[in-house]
Design a protein that fits this description.
Number of helices of chain B: 23
Largest sheet of chain A: 2 strands, antiparallel
CATH topology of the largest domain in chain B: ABC transporter involved in vitamin B12 uptake, BtuC
Strand order of the largest sheet of chain B: 10-11-12-7-13-14
Structural class of chain A: mainly alpha
Helix content of chain A: over 70%
GO molecular function (chain B): ATP binding; ATP hydrolysis activity; branched-chain amino acid transmembrane transporter activity
Pfam families (chain B): ABC_tran, BCA_ABC_TP_C, BPD_transp_2
Oligomer: heterodimer
Radius of gyration of chain A: 20 Å
Subcellular location (chain B): Cell membrane
Number of strands of chain A: 2
Shape of chain B: elongated
Protein name (chain B): Branched-chain amino acid ABC transporter
Order of helices and strands of chain A: HHHHHHHEEHHHHHHHH
Membrane topology (chain B): Multi-pass membrane protein
């Protein structure tokens, strides 16, 4: 039962990551390996805030904002397009600096947890679109393979930075609420409930975003037919940035959720992200509900195999995927599509 | 000739290196060579074949561990003991084992299409890595040490400066054989994998076999690299065979230029040197606290990708304005044997009650018609009438829901398109399916695939050249026949759309078909070009080839064809001579709208 709970809660996290990966892939064709880094950064930034320190990630935000401001600012000046300059500088220079100043001014350790989480999101989520702008936008038209390698490069950079920012030691953040609920024989950890609840809320929220809002529909249109969407006036740049914003939000929030359950190191993100990827693949990088189901399967598989054969835990998770993959590829008989 | 001179100069330079450079750089070059060997395999697998593998490091591990166990163990079971006698025998054993593992993994995971495949490779990459670290007879985490050096006769490759020659001999052999392979009949089949599977199958290429072939070749390269690595280090442990190294090999291939064999060597050199220099220099600048080299390494990689998307090698070629030399067509090459065409008037194709449903949509309903040898039949009808569906079913791309298609006396319903191609059917596509980066000549040569038999090994060592000359001469003959000789050595993608359609016809003709299916061949052609095409088709007809056309250009159709089948909403509404069809009430209604 404990194992089942563990499995479901890590499965819920993988589901969020899988959603983010499916989203990014279908809109931009990027296989976003650094998704896991958002998780690790989320948990570690929150931990620094809770320890009353100014998280070093805010300087990353300042630096990347500055790069974007310079690159885009110069382009705008060249095109004599001064209209958007204000918001560009506002978001990429003023906002990060203001946030840095704020973090220096307040004693973050004493803040209520909800505010700490909000600060974490405020620092990390804007990194998503900035990463897209810097790393992917200039090569958005290339092959999936080149984009994949770019992803690996971004992953290396972020892990390296993670070590610089957070050091090699792992941390756990304080749980949202202590204790557990007991139903007869069964006791359920409150943090597990938080994780599952928040994940479900997120999934429902995303579904609403994609079916109800104009931007959500625009993203869906882009993923179905990029050139068609482009002709309808949906900018691929905006779509890309928006996707990365959402993915960053999902990633960081997963980090915040998982922080109290497992010890997070600066490089934990990779394996977590990889398992999200496994889940996404089970969903065929296309279907959100299947990806979510796959995630819970991976979570359960992992927690049971870590109990029965812990030495082979990772091997089992990855090799048991092969039959699933085979089953899927045999069943999805598809004729080569026209490119 | 020029190529041989270049290669010779390169060999001289490489041979002089250990005498000129300090041992530190020789060691670096050893590592570069070993990585390059793996990366060459990846160029073939990923860059050319489009199959992304993260798992090559595991094959390097198989090669290294096989030789380590065989050459150090004192208690080998009898059946394998022979392989422990010398590292060379252990290499053979390693290659056999790797080949078997690759065949098994390949037959399991290569069925995975698209993005399942990279994940599959991660899965077995990680699994093999963990096995190295947990199995006791492999020394678990501490590995195996005390490997003997490789020897040839009484000479032993002890020092870095000695094994250097062995490593680079392997690299050069790999580069040259891969180059040769890609420039051959098999190579064209491999290059067609990326973006042209339906086309390749229609030309008779067994694409699943091609996938397995390149997978096994890439694995064997990795295994040889592992063997060299093990005997250079004289010890093995699991750490160099993990997923991260698998990713690094992929890096090398992509940074160097994923589609270029020399790119693998450049990429391996660049990545290894960058890694090494950053590890040497950055701690002096920033201190040892952080892992700065990986950050800078990542940033530089991004920069390279942004500046040279296709990798360093093509960027270098552009920089030095190196142009690919056009292929030499040997005019005197003996013509290929021709198929004996069926006697004029003999029925060659029969379509019986063919129905094709896509869910609720009936694309073809109870279609019936037949064709005779030496006849030109046009299939016409408004857009959406089901003509292309009919085409796909005849050529084996699609299978009818019910009904039967008989071609050349055999029922072909449900057969693969490459088997049907072997029976003598060849086709062009409505949406042009050429390989835009390959020359017109090579594109057309794909059509000759079934008329040659040169396999992988003969191609790699250039033992199939007489046959290759004949295939290329045949391709050139067909190009001349359709009037495109001026563009023979141009990239196919650089031609106008109408001309690309003509290339498709030449490619179909290169297969020496008895039935030719042409999907809108005249679309995008100018008046004179259409006339020339009509002339060509009439000539083919006179030779006894049957031609089935889908075409919208009525002037073109009416003056050319013997009979017409008219389709609307998936059904045949009329069949007859051109003059009859022009008068047919139902046809007029279908095309011009009914008169109420």
């Amino acid at each position: 039962m404990i194992l089942g709970q563990d499995g479901v809660s890590s499965g819920a996290i993988y589901a969020l990551l899988a959603l983010a990966l499916v989203l990014i892939f279908s809109v931009t064709r990027v296989i976003f390996i650094p998704q896991g880094e958002f998780v690790a950064f989320g948990a570690l930034t929150l931990a620094m805030l809770q320890a009353g320190k100014v998280p070093a990630t805010v300087w990353l935000l300042v630096a990347m904002g500055a790069v974007v401001a310079v690159v885009d600012g110069l382009a705008r000046l060249r095109d004599r397009d001064t209209e958007g300059l204000g918001s560009l500088l506002g978001w990429n220079l003023a906002y990060p600096l203001a946030l840095a100043a704020l973090l220096h001014a307040v004693e973050s350790g004493g803040l209520p947890m909800a505010l700490q989480i909000l600060l974490t999101l405020a620092i990390l989520v804007p990194l998503g679109p900035m990463i897209y702008r810097i790393a992917y936008q200039p090569i958005a038209e290339t092959s999936v393979l080149v984009l994949l390698i770019a992803s690996v490069a971004v992953h290396l950079i972020l892990t390296g930075l993670g070590l610089v920012f957070f050091g090699a030691e792992g941390v756990r953040t304080a749980p949202f609420s202590e204790g557990s609920l007991t139903f007869g024989e069964v006791s359920i950890n409150l943090q597990t409930l938080w994780v599952v609840g928040c994940s479900l809320a997120f999934i429902v929220g995303l579904a609403a975003f994609f079916t109800r809002s104009l931007y959500g529909k625009a993203l869906r249109a882009t993923s179905v037919n990029p050139s068609g969407a482009k002709l309808m006036g949906i900018s691929p740049v905006v779509a890309g940035k928006l996707t990365f914003l959402l993915a960053a939000l999902l990633g960081v929030f997963s980090g915040v959720l998982i922080g109290p359950i497992t010890t997070i190191y600066y490089d934990t993100g990779f394996l977590i992200g990889l398992k999200g990827f496994v889940a996404a693949i089970i969903g065929g990088l296309a279907s959100y509900p299947l990806a979510a189901a796959g995630a819970v399967l991976v979570g359960l598989l992992e927690s049971f195999s870590s109990f029965w054969a812990s030495a082979f835990k990772e091997v089992l998770v990855f090799t048991l995927i092969i039959p699933v993959l085979l089953w899927r590829s045999f069943n999805s008989h598809h004729v080569e599509d026209e490119e | 000739m020029k190529r041989i001179v270049q290669l010779f100069v390169l060999v001289l330079v490489l041979a002089a290196v250990p005498a000129l450079l300090p041992p530190y750089y020789v060691t670096l070059l050893n590592y570069i060579g070993i990585s390059a060997l793996v990366a060459v395999g990846l160029v073939l697998l990923t860059g050319v074949g489009g199959l992304t593998s993260f798992g090559q490091a595991a094959f390097v591990g198989v090669g290294a561990y096989t030789t380590a166990v065989l050459t150090t163990s004192t208690s080998l079971p009898g059946w394998i003991a022979w392989a422990g006698a010398s590292p060379w025998l252990a290499l053979v054993a390693g290659l056999v084992i790797t080949g078997l593992i690759a065949l098994l993994l390949g037959s399991l995971t290569l069925k995975l299409s698209g993005h399942y495949l990279p994940l599959g490779t991660i899965a077995w990459g990680i699994s093999l890595y963990f096995l190295f670290g947990t199995l006791d007879f492999l020394g678990a985490q501490s590995g195996i040490s005390g490997l003997p050096p490789i020897t040839i006769g009484s000479f032993s490759f002890d020092e870095g400066g000695e094994i250097y020659y062995l490593i680079w001999a392997f690299v050069l052999a790999a580069v040259v054989t891969t180059h040769n392979l890609l420039d051959s009949r098999e190579g064209r089949a491999i290059r067609a994998l990326k973006g042209g599977v339906v086309m390749a199958e229609a030309m008779g290429v067994d694409t699943s076999r091609s996938r397995i072939v390149i997978f096994v070749i890439a694995a064997l390269h990795a295994c040889a690299a592992g063997w060299l690595y093990a005997h250079m280090q004289r010890l093995v442990n699991p750490s160099p065979f993990g997923l991260h190294h698998g990713i690094e090999y992929l890096f090398m291939a992509v940074v160097g230029g994923a589609g270029y064999v020399w790119g693998a060597v450049i990429g391996a050199g660049l990545v290894t040197l960058l890694n090494q220099w950053l590890q040497d220099w950055l701690p002096r600048l920033f201190g040892h606290a952080g892992n700065f080299e990986i950050i800078v390494f990542g940033l530089l990689l991004l920069l390279i990708l942004h500046r040279a998307r296709e990798g360093m090698w093509p960027a270098l070629l552009r920089l030095f304005r190196v142009k690919a030399e056009p292929k030499v067509v040997v005019e005197g090459a003996a013509a290929l044997p021709r198929r004996t065409l069926p006697a004029r008037g003999e029925v060659i194709l029969e379509v019986k009650d063919v129905t094709r449903r896509f869910g609720g949509l009936v694309a073809n309903k109870d279609m019936n018609f037949s064709m005779k040898a030496g006849e030109i039949l046009a299939l016409i009808g408004p857009n959406g009438a089901g003509k292309s569906t009919m085409f796909n079913q005849i050529s084996g791309v699609d299978t009818p829901t019910s009904g039967e298609i008989v071609f050349a006396g055999q029922v072909v319903t449900g057969r693969d398109s490459r088997e049907i191609a072997r029976l003598g059917m060849s086709r062009s596509f409505q949406h042009v399916r050429l390989l835009p980066k390959m020359s017109v000549l090579e594109n057309v040569a794909i059509g000759t695939h079934l008329r040659g038999s040169g396999g992988v090994f003969p191609s790699a060592w250039r033992m199939e050249r007489p046959e290759e000359e004949r295939l290329l001469a045949e391709a050139a003959r067909q190009i001349r026949r359709v009037g495109l000789e001026a563009h023979m050595h141009d990239e196919a993608g650089s031609l106008a759309l109408g001309q690309q359609r003509i290339i498709e016809i030449a490619r179909a003709l290169a297969a020496d078909p008895s039935l030719l299916l042409l999907d809108e061949p005249a679309a995008g052609l100018r008046f004179k070009e259409k006339e020339a095409l009509a002339e060509l088709l009439k000539k083919l007809k006179a030779e006894g080839v049957a031609i089935l056309l889908v075409e919208h250009d009525m002037d073109f159709v009416m003056g050319l064809v013997d009979r017409i089948v008219v389709m609307e909403f998936g059904q045949k509404i009329a069949e007859g001579l051109p003059e009859e069809i022009q008068q047919d009430e139902r046809v007029l209604a279908a095309y011009l709208g009914g008169v109420e």
